[in-house]
Structures are given as C-alpha cells and as structure tokens.
Write a structure and sequence with these properties.
Elements lengths: L3 H25 L3 H10 L2 H11 L3 E4 L40 E4 L4 H7 L2 E2 L2 E2 H6 L4 H4 L5 H12 L16 E6 L2 E5 L5 H16 L1 H11 L15 E4 L10 H5 L3 E4 L20 H5 L1 H18 L7 H26 L15 H7 L8 H8 L3 H17 L8 H15 L3
Antiparallel strand pairs: 1-2, 3-4, 5-6, 7-8
Helix pairs in contact: 3-7, 8-9, 12-13, 13-17, 14-16, 16-17
C-alpha cells in the first residue's frame, strides 16, 4: 500500500497539476463568463471525473504502432514485464531498469496520461492504481465510491484489447517449415528508444559531459568518462505534430536516435610510412578527405555568408573534432609498429613526425631520444597539420590565414603533449 507520506504527496501533486492546467487556461482567457466556466471545469472533483472518462481514449504501452506509419490504427501493446527487468545479453526493453510508459491514443486526452505519470517519492500514480491502491484519490474524492470510479476509469489505460493489425501495418513472413509461415507485425519499441535517447542526450549535452570534454581539451584530470557516440543518425516521427504519435515522442520533439550498426571496416595490416614526405599529405589524406574533410568544406561554403551563430560554431567544432579523432586513431596504429622503423633509410618523414609516430624508439636510441627531448616536435606536428588541413579546406570562397591556422593547430597540439 502507499504510505501516508506518498499518499499525501501524490494527492498534492494531483491538485497542483490540475491547478496549473487551470491557470494556463485562465491566463489566455479574458472573458469573465468563460473564466467562470474554466474555474468550474477545473474544480478537482469535476476535472478528475471527466479525466477518468477520457482515460478510455488512451493506452499505456511500451511498443507502438504509429511509429511504423502515422495513420496506422493497429494495436499498440505493453510487451514487457516492467516489474522484473532481465539481462540476458541482448539489448531489449527488458534491459531497461525502469521502463518508461508511453501513452498513445487521442492526443486531446494526453493530459490524462501526464496525470497518471505524476510521481512523488519514486511512486507513480498509475503504479499505485495498478496495485489496487487508490489512496491518493481517496484524499481528494468526496467519497470512497467516487474514488473507486475514478480508479476504474484510469485503469482502462492498461486494458489489453483484442490485438488487431491495420492496412498500414508492416508484415514480415517468417518461414516455419516448407510452405508455412508466421506473419509478424513489428511494433516500434518506444520505451526502449526513449531510454536510449535519454542516455545519449546525457552523454552529449549534460553539464557533466561538457565539463569532461573541456577537461580533456585542457589536459586536466576528470573523474567522469568522456563518452561519445559516433555516426549517430536522427529519425523523425510525426512531423510538426509529434504528439499525434505518442506522448514520449512529443517529449523528444519527434526525434529518436539511431546508433550506427555498420560492420567494422576491413583494416589492412599497418606498414611503416616509408618513402613519403609527410604523414598528412599522403598517408592520412585519401579516405579522410572523402569522409570528413570534403563534407566540412561543403558545410563551410554553405554557411560562409550566414551570421556565425552558436549552431554553426557547434557543427564546425564537432566536424573538426571528428577529423582530429580520426588522425589520432590512425596514428595510434602506426605507433604500435616495432620501435625503430623511422630509422629506416627509406623513411623521409620530417623529424617531428618521426618523434610523434615512433615514440618507443627513444627507449633504445639515445641520440634520437636526446634530439626528441630538445625539440618541440608537438608544436611542429600541429603546425604541419594546420597547414595541410587549411589547404584542403580552402576554395574560391574560403581562405585560411594565420588566425585560422592557429585555431587548427590548437586542436591537435594538446593531444600530442605527453606522448
């Protein structure tokens, strides 16, 4: 049963919610007669009675049909035991410790869904009603029969009607045996998508994540891990009316993340970069230019005549960070080669690039170590990078001078210090 504190807390949240909705309506209405109608409509008992009736227009689910097609009228279902999360090695809705309900149905009744998801002390109103505990409603209702009537109406959101498909449902024919198939109708795992969205949003935009990335940029210690999700895609649902798909979709602004599931790229065996004059202009250039540098140049050309706002700055910084990460990753493979490869007579790299890419040579080559310690090779490598990248980004409308090159240099140089 709900504790007295939880009962009173949930009852207070319900009253606060109703009052907030009433005040929002009154703020927009200046007509005195209509303001009286709104005040009467949002009297707690009257509003809860109406909400209990409208609850039948909603369903609390974990897997929704409308994500597959916005006009689908097929069944959405609660397809997970929310009380017993499991971990069997597969990522599924059951992997989520606390599965968020999604709400589908008449968008005009979504306010009822928000009511049932009100929480106090870790206790949601819908969870209390699900356990036949209507104590929070008893604290508001004029009598026990009314509280029970409200509870029965609200619990209709958990009803499981006869499953049905629709002409806009997708159908997959799954072979069982010769000439026999099961027809599978996939539903969108909206609760799982919402949980994934929350994790990625935190990793990208939370104050902790921003502080960690800033610490990494400044080469400072951080107790938090720098978590990144490369090659993310964003899928949109519902267009300008995401609430028509579901309540969670509305909370996400109609967006959901797709994590890259590409198979790993075949990597050829790393060989020493011999007979080339710079690691940038020849070894790093081919694929890096096609996948990252050219798209960055195209982006800079598109926004060249626009005000340099925060969105443009953010996208530019993200694209440049990706290029730096790719270079550091590829350099790491070369650094794993047997030490001393840069002493080969066919190695034509400048000394600073040898210091960067063959750091273990300093442990056995005293002369190399002495020259490496006496050279600010990190600054020179970063300058080589800045000159190379600026030349690749230049075009008829883009020019990179000393200031821009210094900014490019400052992206890489901090990453090289300490190697």
């Amino acid at each position: 049963m709900t504790s007295t504190a939880q009962q009173n807390g949930l009852a207070a949240r319900i009253l606060e919610y109703i009052q907030q909705r009433r005040d929002e309506k009154l703020e927009k209405e200046k007509n005195a007669a209509k303001r009286l109608e709104i005040t009467a409509k949002y009297e707690p008992s009257a509003w809860l009675s109406d909400a209990a009736r409208r609850a039948r227009q909603l369903s609390f689910i974990t897997h929704a049909a409308k994500y597959i097609h916005g006009d689908s009228r097929g069944s959405s279902v609660e397809a997970v035991n929310t009380d017993s999360p499991t971990s069997d090695g597969y990522i599924s809705t059951n992997s989520v410790p606390e599965v968020p309900y999604d709400v589908v149905g008449n968008a005009a009744a979504l306010d009822v869904g928000k009511l049932l998801l009100l929480e106090h002390g870790g206790q949601k109103l819908i969870d209390a009603l699900r356990r036949d505990d209507n104590a929070p409603l008893l604290a508001i209702a004029p009598d026990a029969d009314t509280a029970q009537e409200w509870a029965d109406g609200f619990l209709s959101v958990l009803a499981s009607p006869e499953p049905s498909a629709h002409k806009f449902s997708k159908q997959c024919y799954w072979p069982v045996q010769s000439d026999e198939y099961h027809i599978h109708i996939p539903l969108y795992a909206t609760s799982l998508a919402h949980a994934i969205h929350a994790v990625i949003q935190h990793a990208r935009f939370s104050a902790e994540a921003k502080a960690t990335r800033e610490a990494r940029r400044k080469e400072e210690d951080s107790e938090q891990e720098d978590v990144r999700y490369p090659n993310l895609a964003v899928q949109s649902f519902g267009g300008t009316k995401p609430q028509n798909i579901s309540q969670l979709n509305s909370q996400r602004g109609g967006k959901a993340y797709l994590v890259s599931c590409e198979p790993p790229d075949w990597q050829r065996q790393t060989t020493p970069p011999l007979n080339i004059t710079s690691i940038f202009s020849q070894r790093f250039e081919r694929r890096l230019y096609r996948e990252h540098i050219q798209p960055l140049r195209d982006f800079l050309q598109r926004v060249a005549d626009r005000p340099n706002n925060d969105r443009i700055k953010k996208q530019r910084a993200q694209r440049l960070d990706t290029i730096v990460d790719e270079i550091l990753n590829r350099a790491a493979f070369i650094q794993q080669l047997p030490p001393g490869w840069s002493a080969d007579p066919d190695c034509r790299l400048p000394f600073e690039e040898r210091c960067w890419l063959d750091p273990e040579r300093a442990k056995t080559d005293e002369e190399f170590r002495s020259q490496r310690d006496a050279t600010d090779w990190a600054a020179k490598v970063a300058q080589n990078f800045a000159i190379w990248l600026s030349h690749k980004l230049e075009s008829g409308t883009l020019a990179f001078g000393a200031v821009e090159q210094r900014e490019l240099r400052d992206l890489l140089e901090p990453e090289l210090r300490g190697l």
